[in-house]
Design brief:
The protein has a 6-stranded parallel β-sheet, with helices on both faces. A two-stranded parallel ribbon has the order 4-5. Strands 9-10 form a two-stranded antiparallel ribbon. The protein is an alpha/beta fold. α4 crosses α9. A hairpin with a 2-residue loop joins β9 and β10. Bound molecules: zinc ion. The site of zinc ion has 5 residues, from α4 and α5.
Length: 409
């Protein structure tokens, strides 16, 4: 696919090792040629990756959000954003929790204290809230506040979310009641947390990293044309949070051309608010993204010393590709779809023996098949057959399956 083939929003999906990042980098170079250096940006999913790629045009999506917000606030003469660091955030959270411990000690009426008592299901809950030895509740609260922002649980959605905690027929069992209490408590504590930030830093615009994405999204409509890039390329799109997706959508509405590259199966941020297959669907339905498959090499990398199964068995390709294909085709979709599994975004092409998994023909030629994914220099130390180690290392369980005729030293 060439740069000219890209749509207003293009969704590039590719199997593992199909060269997605190289593809994204190539498109970034083309976009910089087309729009000028400062008008094309690529985002990656972590600062370490951004640093490793080492280019001013490559950064995290949060850094893009920070620049946008700074530009808008600057043009409006408002205080510029300053992120709360972890220690500052801890101080704020402790301050909020300490206020309720004080209410409890003084016997003050407080709706949040009532929720805390219901949540902990004990009358003496203050020691659980402010436990200096573990900080367990404070740590959980910090994560909860971040996840709420990342999934877009805005204050205006509180009643709707709490209503959804009931069953379809409106019934509430003990578990659903508890869920409601948790949501109420989380929303109440977040409001107090935000208020504590404002009162601790009067006249400043302080915010944590999860709030940054929300505020930047709201600011996009007010950004000046000169401060907005023509093109944004998002690598590892599958790890975008829902809040990040809302920012991309706002940028799209402002005319920013988007190239979203990734594979739902490679997501590593689902624990913190990314819903990869949902994102892939939403990019197509809400932003009209055209899905393109990034076709790359799915076989052994150049320079690998592994032999291929096909040398002996003709049609199974190299062993690593076969195993990777089995894994790829074993990961079912989390979203309802009529598309056959091998045709879904990011899936490896089906191959004989992959799905359903078939036993490979026994190697009766005496030639040895080397599993490429776990190839090691042959061990010269004889080991008993019952050994579970190989050259001093634990055998990978997959290597102990004798169905494909591999002979281990
Ligand atoms: Zn209280």
């Amino acid at each position: 696919m060439n740069f000219e083939d890209l749509d207003r929003v293009t969704l590039g999906a590719g199997a593992p090792s199909s060269g997605k990042t190289e593809f994204a980098l190539g498109m970034l170079v083309a976009a910089m040629r087309r729009y000028g250096d400062g008008n094309a940006v690529m985002t990656v999913s972590g600062r370490q990756i951004a640093d490793a790629l080492g280019d001013r045009a490559i950064r995290e999506l949060s850094a893009v959000a920070f620049r946008l917000l700074t530009a808008v606030r600057s043009s409006q003469g408002e205080p510029l954003p300053k992120l709360l660091n972890g220690a500052e955030q801890d101080v704020i959270i402790r301050k909020v929790l300490a206020s309720h411990v004080e209410h409890r000690q003084h016997g003050d009426d407080c709706a949040t204290c009532d929720l805390l008592r219901t949540y902990f299901a004990v009358s003496e809950w203050s020691g659980l809230v402010a436990d200096d030895s573990t900080d367990a509740f404070a740590n959980q609260l910090r994560d909860m506040l971040a996840r709420m922002n990342e999934i877009g649980a805005k204050p205006q959605f509180e009643d709707m979310l709490i209503a959804r905690a009931a069953s379809r027929d409106g019934m509430l069992d003990e578990r659903r009641e508890r869920l409601r209490t948790q949501w109420r408590l989380a929303f109440a504590l977040r409001e107090e947390y935000n208020e504590a930030i404002r009162s601790s830093y009067p006249g400043e615009y302080r915010l944590d990293a999860s709030q940054l994405m929300i505020d930047a999204t709201e600011a996009v409509s007010g950004i000046q044309e000169a401060d907005i890039a023509n093109m944004l390329i998002v690598d590892d799109f599958q790890d975008t949070t829902l809040a990040g997706f809302a920012l991309l959508e706002a940028l799209h509405e402002r005319g920013v051309r988007l190239l979203l590259v990734g594979n739902p199966d490679e997501a590593v941020q689902t624990f913190r608010g990314s819903y990869p297959e949902y994102l892939f669907n939403q990019a197509q339905t809400r932003m009209g993204a055209r899905l393109e498959r990034i076709e790359g090499l799915q076989t052994a990398h150049e320079g690998d010393t592994a032999q291929t199964v096909s040398n002996q068995q003709g049609m199974h390709g190299d062993y690593r590709t076969l195993v990777a294909t089995r894994v790829s085709l074993s990961i079912a979709s989390t979203e309802s779809t009529d598309v056959p599994l091998p045709d879904r975004p990011g899936k490896m092409s089906d191959m004989p023996g992959a799905m359903p998994i078939e036993t490979l023909p026994a190697d009766d030629t005496g030639a040895r098949v080397t599993p490429t994914a776990v190839w090691k220099r042959p061990c010269t130390v004889p080991l008993p057959k019952s050994s579970t180690t190989w050259c001093g290392r634990s055998k990978l369980s997959i290597c102990n399956v004798p169905v494909y005729g591999t002979t281990w030293p």
